[in-house]
Specification:
alpha/beta, Rossmann fold, single chain, 300 residues, 7-stranded mixed beta sheet, 12 helices
Length: 300
């Protein structure tokens, strides 16, 4: 019993030390999480991020969020009133832009990846969509006019200054602001890999709760809808399954060997490959702007 008490006390002290060392300001905490994160999806280096989008742009639509989880697109569509103007931050190849262009009066589609916007512009030309303007710029640098609705769907992952990013959204959103965020916390197999292979290596980056916290500190009392989806992953061989479970960077050869040995204990056999029955969660965060009740028909 004494040993258990000492162990519990040690854990408590360690947790307390981490808590007292962590920044207490919401925006400083966001910046610290970005700096500490080893999550392979963060891609804080701009050159690496642009290279990533250059590689996947041609096939991006196959796995785009509105394609994989139509319920997210329908929820966003319900939050964008017909006849409004929309600013789509991080529009990419237009996975949200094009469906919403069917009811919006005009859309500004902003992205900083030339590769993604090339595909969007070709789609716009093919569809003769005259109410969409594609703009190549970083969100933090872009000079933009207010719109009825501002949408940032999985677009704030590289944000260094959350205060600046959210303030800009709040200032430009006359009727509504929307942030869509793929929740980072994963199911048991990936947690087991993190704990058993290199417990000190993985550090998560910011998540949707930190966006909510930032909005709260800016006096915005946002709503959040969590959409759950079947995000089952299938891998045709051991190498693909191992890569799918590893979530940090850099990855060593020893990491891959150790994860491969855990596969029979974590995943289900699927023929000669593996199946990971994973649940996905998407947060749709939204708030009303100063003109939330205005008649959109009166806007140009």
């Amino acid at each position: 019993m004494r040993q258990e008490r000492r162990t519990s006390t040690s854990i408590y002290r360690a947790a307390t030390n981490r808590t007292t060392q962590a920044p207490q300001d919401a925006f400083a905490r966001w910046a610290a999480l970005q700096a500490w994160s080893t999550d392979a999806t963060n891609r804080l280096n701009e050159e690496a991020d642009l290279d990533f989008w250059e590689r996947i742009a041609p096939t991006y639509d196959l796995g785009a969020l509105p394609t994989r989880v139509p319920a997210v697109l329908e929820r966003v569509r319900a939050l964008v009133p017909s006849g409004t103007s929309l600013l789509d931050v991080g529009a990419g190849t237009g996975a949200f832009t094009l469906p919403l262009a069917q009811t919006a009066t005009r859309i500004t589609a902003l992205d900083y990846s030339p590769a993604m916007l090339r595909i969007l512009r070709q789609k716009l030309a093919d569809a003769a969509a005259c109410n969409v303007r594609a703009v190549l710029a970083r969100w933090e640098d872009a000079a933009l006019e207010p719109h009825d609705v501002v949408l940032a769907a999985n677009a704030l992952y590289r944000t260094a200054d959350l205060r600046l990013a959210l303030r800009k959204m709040i200032e430009l959103a006359r009727r509504r602001g929307i942030v869509v965020w793929s929740v980072g916390r994963q199911d048991a197999p990936q947690q087991a890999v993190r704990e058993q292979v290199r417990p000190e290596q993985y550090q998560a980056g910011p998540d949707y709760v930190h966006v909510l916290e930032g909005l709260y500190h800016l006096d915005v009392f946002a709503h959040v809808d969590l959409i759950e989806t079947d995000d089952t992953q299938r891998y045709s061989n051991d190498a693909q399954a191992t890569d799918g479970l590893l979530s940090w960077s850099p990855i060593t050869a020893d990491d891959q060997v150790r994860v491969a040995s855990l596969l029979p204990h974590l995943l289900e056999r699927d023929g000669v490959g593996w199946r990971w029955r994973r649940r996905g969660r998407i947060a749709v965060i939204w708030w009303d702007g100063p003109d939330a009740n205005a008649d959109a028909a009166c806007r140009s």
